[in-house]
Design a protein that fits this description.
- The protein is α+β, with helices and mostly antiparallel strands.
- It folds into 3 domains: 1-20 and 28-45 and 323-424, no CATH class; 21-27 and 46-174 and 192-207, no CATH class; 214-307, no CATH class.
- It has helices at residues 174-177, 211-223, 227-234, 248-270, 274-284, 290-302, 357-362, 391-397, and strands spanning 10-12, 34-35, 52-53, 59-62, 68-76, 79-90, 93-101, 103-111, 119-125, 133-139, 146-153, 157-159, 168-172, 193-199, 202-205, 311-312, 325-327, 343-346, 349-350, 364-371, 377-382, 401-403, 405-407, 410-421.
- α2 packs antiparallel against α4 (248-270), α3 (227-234) packs across α4 and α4 (248-270) packs antiparallel against α5 (274-284).
- The two termini are 21 Å apart.
C-alpha cells in the first residue's frame, strides 16, 4: 500500500497471511503472533524463534534461479506429525534437507555467505533432548547442494553486523561447555559467543573483531558479582563437587559465582584476549585449583567450534567503509523502487502489556526498519504519525528476519516501512 506521501509500505496484521514475492516467492507464510516477553534485555539463544517447532509452522519461497524451499510438518500417510521437515525443489526434482526433526528454521535465503553461491542457511535441531542446532548451508543454484555444515551452537544467525557488506554467522559454543564443571547450560547465563565468517570458502573465527560486544557482556557479568561472594568462592576448592561438606544454600550461591567467573574468562578468551582471560582467572579463581581449571578450559574450547574453523582474525578491524543502504520505500522518477524490496520470513509480535483492548482494536503503527544484506533488522523506529511505539514492539522488531532486498540480483541493505496492526 502507499502512505500519505505516496511511499510504498507493507501492511502487516496479526493474522497469518500469504503473498507472492516479486522474485517468485510462492505463498509465503508470515507468522505474526503474540507472545510474552519476561525481560527487557535481549532474549537468550533458547528463546530464538524458528519457523517450525514440533510440527507447528511452515514456510515456502522460490528464488529467481528456480530453486524453491519448503518447511512444514512431517506427514505420515497424509497426517501431520509433531516433527518438521524441509526440502529444496527444482525442475520436478527435490532434495530433502531434514526430516522428522524437532525444530527447523530458515535463517537466511538468497545470500552468499562467502561460499561463492547464493544460499539458504537452515537451523536444524534433531530432537528436543539435543542441546544444540546444526547449521546447514545449501546453494540455491541448480542443482542445489550442501555447501557446509556447522555444529555445536544452540543457535546460528547470519547478519551483516557492522553494515560493511560482510556477513558474519553468530553462534555459541554450547556443545563444548554443556556440563562443563557439572554446570548445565541453564546455569550458564550464556555459553561463550563465537562469530564466524566465510572468506573465499574458508571459515574464519572473527570474534576478535567484535571486542566491544564482548566488553559489554563482561561489564554486565561483573555487575552480578560482589566482593564478598568472590572472596567466598576463592576460599573454596573451586570444584564444588556434590560431596563438598557445605550447606546446599551456600554451594548453590558459589555455583552461581563460579558460572559468572567462567563466563567472564570465556568472553576474554573467545574474543582473542588470552592474556586477559588468564589474568582474570588468576584474580577470581581459587589459587590451588587454577592449573586444573586452566587446562580444563583449554580442553573444552579445543573440542568446540574452533575445531571446525580454518583460521582466525587476530585483531579488531576499524574504519571499514559502510555498505550502501538502499531505499525500499520511495519510488524513483521512473515509478519503480530502486531495489526488489525485502520479504518477511518470520515476524513475531509481542503481547503489549498495558495497552487497553479499546486501543488495540483501533491502533495501527508504522515502523521504519533498516534490514541488512542477510535479512536481519539492524534497527527499528516509529515512522509517519506513529510517534510513540511500545518498546516491546520495537525490541521484537529487531529479532525479525527477512529475505533481504535485491539489486541487480545481489542482496543489499535497505530501509523499508511496515504497518503493524495491534488488533488480536
Amino acid at each position: 500500500m502507499l502512505d500519505s506521501n505516496n511511499r510504498l509500505i507493507y501492511k502487516i496484521r496479526a493474522s497469518s497471511l500469504g503473498r507472492q514475492f516479486r522474485f517468485r516467492c510462492v505463498a509465503l507464510v508470515l507468522v505474526l503472533c503474540c507472545f510474552s516477553w519476561v525481560t527487557s534485555v535481549l532474549c537468550s539463544a533458547q528463546d530464538h524463534d524458528v519457523l517450525c517447532s514440533d510440527g507447528s509452522g511452515s514456510f515456502q519461497a522460490e528464488f529467481h534461479t528456480g530453486v524453491s524451499v519448503q518447511v512444514k510438518a512431517t506427514r505420515t500417510e497424509e497426517l501431520a506429525t509433531r516433527t518438521c521437515e524441509a526440502a529444496l525443489r527444482w525442475d520436478k526434482q527435490s532434495l530433502i534437507v531434514a526430516a522428522n526433526v524437532s525444530q527447523l528454521d530458515v535463517d537466511t535465503f538468497g545470500v552468499d555467505l562467502g561460499l561463492g553461491a547464493p544460499a539458504a542457511g537452515f537451523q536444524v535441531k534433531k530432537s528436543s533432548a539435543s542441546c544444540c542446532m546444526e547449521y546447514e548451508i545449501y546453494s540455491l543454484e541448480k542443482p542445489p547442494r550442501l555447501l557446509r555444515t556447522l555444529t555445536g551452537g544452540d543457535f546460528f544467525s547470519a547478519a551483516d553486523s557492522d553494515l560493511d557488506g560482510r556477513v558474519e554467522i553468530w553462534t555459541d559454543d554450547a556443545a563444548a561447555v554443556d556440563g562443563f564443571e557439572n554446570l548445565s547450560l541453564a546455569e550458564l547465563g550464556s555459553p561463550p559467543v563465537v562469530v564466524l565468517r566465510f572468506l573465499r570458502g574458508h571459515l574464519l573465527d572473527v570474534s576478535s573483531e567484535f571486542q566491544t560486544y564482548f566488553d559489554r557482556e563482561i561489564e554486565e557479568l561483573r555487575k552480578e558479582l560482589d566482593s564478598d561472594s568472590l572472596r567466598d568462592f576463592k576460599a573454596s576448592d573451586g570444584k564444588l563437587s556434590p560431596t563438598t561438606p557445605i550447606s546446599a544454600e551456600r554451594i548453590h550461591r558459589l555455583r552461581v559465582v563460579k558460572a559468572r567467573v567462567l563466563e567472564i574468562v570465556w568472553a576474554y578468551l573467545y574474543s582473542g584476549r588470552e592474556q586477559r582471560a588468564w589474568s582474570s582467572l588468576t584474580d577470581m579463581w581459587p589459587e590451588a585449583d587454577a592449573d586444573r581449571i586452566h587446562a580444563a578450559i583449554l580442553n573444552a574450547s579445543g573440542r568446540g567450534i574452533s575445531a571446525q574453523v580454518d583460521g582466525a582474525s587476530k585483531a579488531p578491524q576499524r574504519n571499514r567503509k559502510r555498505a550502501q543502504v538502499f531505499d525500499a520505500i520511495g519510488e524513483s522518477s521512473s515509478g519503480k523502487l530502486e531495489v526488489v524490496p525485502p520479504e518477511p520470513i518470520l515476524l513475531r509480535r509481542p503481547a503489549l502489556a498495558g495497552t487497553s483492548s479499546k486501543d488495540l482494536q483501533q491502533s495501527e503503527v508504522l515502523l521504519q526498519l533498516l534490514i541488512d544484506s542477510a535479512g536481519k533488522v539492524r534497527w527499528a523506529e516509529p515512522a509517519g504519525k506513529s510517534k510513540i511505539v511500545h518498546p516491546l514492539l520495537i525490541h521484537a522488531a529487531t529479532t525479525w528476519k527477512f529475505i533481504p532486498a535485491f539489486k541487480t540480483g545481489r542482496p543489499v541493505a535497505s530501509r523499508m516501512r511496515l504497518a503493524v496492526s495491534l488488533t488480536q
